[in-house]
Each structure stands twice: as C-alpha cells, then as structure tokens.
Amino acid sequence: MATWNVNSVKQRMPRLLGWLDERQPDVVCLQETKLADDAFTTLLGGELASRGYETALYGEVQWNGVAILSKVGIEDVVTGVAGAPGFPNPEARAVAATCGGIRIHGLYVPNGREPDSDHYQYKLAWLKALTQVVADGPADQIVCGDMNIAPTDADVFDPAAFAGSTHVTPAERQALADLMAAKGLRDVVRERWPDEQVFSYWDYRAGMFHQNLGMRIDLTLATENVASRVKAAWIDRQARKGTGPSDHAPVIVDLDTAPDGDIGPMIPPPSAPRAKKRPTTLPQNR
DNA sequence: ATGTCCCTGTAACAGGGA
What we know:
This protein has 6 helices and 12 strands. The model is unreliable at 263-286 (pLDDT under 50). The protein has one domain: Deoxyribonuclease I, Chain A, CATH 3.60.10. The longest helix is centred in the middle third of the chain and has 18 residues, at 118-135. It is an alpha+beta fold. It binds one DNA strand through loops. Its EC number is 3.1.11.2. This is Exodeoxyribonuclease III.
C-alpha cells in the first residue's frame, strides 16, 4: 500500500498513472486531489478502473481532497472525521475504508499555518477527534497520509530552520503521540530506517529537493497486527524527481499476505535457483 | 529568504494556500 500527496491530481495525472503502472500498489491513499468527486471520476475513473482500482472519494472544487484507490475491495467508506471541527465548514481531509481486511485512514491533516493561530487550534482539535475515531476502530488499522507534523527533529533538515514554525511544535508532536498511543500505532518507515534522513516533502522553491532540504511529514502508522506484517517500508524519492513532480514523494509499505510466520520465510532456501548473473558486456546505463 | 507551483476568478493578471 502507499500514500501520496499529489498536489492536484489533474496536474499529476501523467505522473500518477505511470507510477501506478510501475509500483502496482494494491491500495493508494491520495491527498490534495483538489478536485470535486464528479470531476475526479470524469478525469480518472476509466484509467483507474482499467487498472483494477475501485475508489472512495472525498473532494472539493478547489482545495484539499482525499481519495483511496483499492484493488482489494473498498468497504464501509466513511468521509470526514466524526466529531472534528470545520474551518469553519467541514473540509475534505479524511476518508476511511476497509481494504483487504485492514481499516485504512487516508488523511490530509490541517496545516496549522502559524502557531496559536485559529488554524493551528483547528489542527489540534481535528487531530483529537481523529484519535477517538482510531481508538474506536478495529485491531487492524493503517493511519496514513500528509500529517503535516514532523514527529522528531530528525524528521527535518535543520531544526533551527523551523524554530517558531508549525509542524514541529510540542503540542503538535504531542497530538501525534496521543494518536499513536490510542491504538499502539507504529511508525513503520522510521522503524525501518532508524538512523537515516528520510524526507517525504521538499519545498518547490530554491532547489530544496536538489539539496535534500526536506521534511518527513507523510507518515504510515500501523497497529501491531499490521506492523508485524511489514516486509518493506520506504519513501519513493524517484517520484519527486524529473518533470512535473508533486512536492511530496509517495510512502510505500509492503505487507505480507498473512500474519508473520503463516506463509514461511521470504528468503528463498539455499537450494532455490539463483538469478543469472548479468553479462559484463552490457553497456553502462548512465 | 519566500526564489514555486497550484487553485479560482477575472481577464492575461491578482490573490490565496502550501
């Protein structure tokens, strides 16, 4: 499964379709689609259906917008977060569905803008309501998306550069910690890369991506049942390169098809045939 | 520090959001 803030699904369509064909995820959570549901379906419905995806959409005309794409079923769809405030009206920032037996929450958490602003208070209240929804949910859950919070100082390129800014304040980090504690959620990408700089967002401006001056604010959090099935977890930086990228990279998590141990080891036994060595005469790929 | 990109509305730019 994967989560990706695409920053306009209309602008990102060629990149998104190519990426789906390349990575072939079973479930994808999209954020900042910036498209009403009827326009989303007109634009992408056929392309997604031909690839085997069903969709759960919660969009708006101009801002925000979230979606879940799934090849493994999409049941009990819920849009929005029960009990969450609007700003002042409800915004399209959350969609949940059960896909392949896992309750998936695809989220675009409010930005917060400035500490102690109305929008910042909205962000904290919204996260508190989300925490209750997740706490009331089943044992198999994934909470993912653009959380607009860097969990620790290791998740920003320079903590000093973020002094006085949102995304790193103690209150935001505490709200995230409370959300994780409510259901024992694990940050599966950080667990896989405990000592690496792994960013998911780089500002478009000033060559930030080129210099790897980014933040890790797109998270995949999993309950114990699901986290124990994780076989790989990474941020797909390739998708941030080249022409017409989003400012966010996708986060990809591979799950075993059954709880750990049920289908045997993933590493082939020594007797398994090895892949042929590549001939050394191939031209260098540069 | 605000150099980019994306949206809408209104008209080939302004203003908001990230």
